[in-house]
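can u pls check wat happens w/ MU-OXO-diiron
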Amino acid sequence: MRPVEISEHCTWVGALDPQLRVFDVVMPTGEGTTYNAYLVKGAEKTALVDCVKEKFMPQLLANVESLIDPASLDYIVTNHTEPDHGGGLATMLEHAPQAKVVISKTATGFLKGLLKRDVDPILAADGDEIDLGGVKLRFIWAPFLHWPDTMFTYVVEDKVLMPCDFLGCHYCDDRLFDDKVDDFSGAFRYYFDVIMRPFKEFAIKALDKIDQLDIEMIAPSHGPILRSDPKAYLFEYRERASMPSPRKPGDPVSVLIFYASAYGNTEKMAGALADGARQAGAQVATFDATQIDIAEVLPMIEASDGLMVGSPTIVADAVEQIWSLLSHLITIKVKGKYGASFGSYAWSGEAPMMLTNRLKELKFRTPLEPLRAVFTVDEDDLAAARKFGADFAQAVKAGAK
Ligand code: FEO
């Protein structure tokens, strides 16, 4: 796609990736994505804000070359070093050897790791500005959105905020602007939920920081450029980041149970666990993990107090659906929640132990040893499961006080 002028001094020079279906290995991207990079031209100097994924560098380079000689670039601003943006930096520097890389102080180590050489970057302090001649870039620290190194770049005279991944989404449409593309609200919400929600306190801090900024356009690193009503997007982020935990003091604790079951035995255990936990005063919901939409249950898990996961043991392992659920927990806040595991098995029975180990790695509190039942689940097993569920709920209640 050819460059697109987005404001008086700024031009989109990024790359489209319409075929991408999974981002960062775990995040479905049904509508592809874009790697947005922007050229900002002043009367005296020129800056490139962000690069693109290495394999898309030919697109970026062709776009830059159609506007300027890349060797004349003065600055390459790297708002965040993750390889979907920083991956092309080494190649860009080969074409623009005189350009100074501008990063946040926190990015110093990441930059060295990324490039495997020292490039003597400019460390932009919060509020620092670079004058390009008639247009200035202002840098705004916004750590943990979603990496520690993240900063925003604000093009002062154009009132364009380039907030890196913040306010972005995985949605590919060459019409580029929010008022021209189709409805991308689902992708926008999903991106917040998966990428930004674990850092919602930092999101609020960043929103507070830019609250007084005069913003006419938000030009993020992925997805549509937001120009129709920038404040509405900022408001939506604030709402979503401010969403309180549904449980208020005095409310019962909530426990979610996810299971997969090959022959119905682990499912029976899940039912008995739920009975026991309910009798002990917890609100309980039970899910067959083979039937869920993980994106939909993640907010429930984040709002819950305790999580039990159950799997049969198949070839000395837990089943894929349960591992998949656990792998997505890195996108929400689970540290300090209560966790437990269970499962029936025929001969080796490792799965529940493996699941509890994973819960521990995810920083769950795991007050109970994994619950296992051999082969056919009988009345004794169900009684043990009811007790386990009750003990778990009691532990969650004690921890919630
Ligand atoms: Fe789009 Fe965190 O990089």
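The pocket of MU-OXO-diiron is lined by residues 80, 82, 84-85, 146-147, 165, 221-222 (CB under 6 Å).
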